[in-house]
Design brief:
The protein has about 80 residues and is mainly α. The chain is built from 2 helices and no strands. The model has no long low-confidence stretch (mean pLDDT about 95).
Length: about 80
């Protein structure tokens, strides 16, 4: 039961982080789109930042999925135990 609460709490912490990162990625994409006259180095820097943010989003989404799978298993086990 405590494990279920912890998994739900952890998922709830990850969700806003993912949203923040997605907003950051959108901002970077806008900067990339508007960096026409900025030069190659600016574009390269923005692209690198974008890649880091996308990697972090992917990492957090994987963490969330693992928690969701764990939560599903825990809930199934609890249902069987209380039946």
């Amino acid at each position: 039961r405590n494990a279920i609460k912890k998994a739900k709490r952890d998922m709830g912490k990850i969700e806003p982080l993912i949203e923040k990162l997605k907003a950051k990625a959108e901002g970077l994409q806008t900067e990339i789109d508007n960096s026409d006259g900025e030069g190659w180095t600016v574009l390269a820097d923005l692209t690198e930042q974008m890649q880091k943010v996308n990697d972090e989003i992917e990492e957090k989404e994987m963490e969330w999925l693992e928690l969701a799978e764990s939560l599903e298993t825990l809930e199934e086990e609890e249902a069987v135990a209380s039946a």
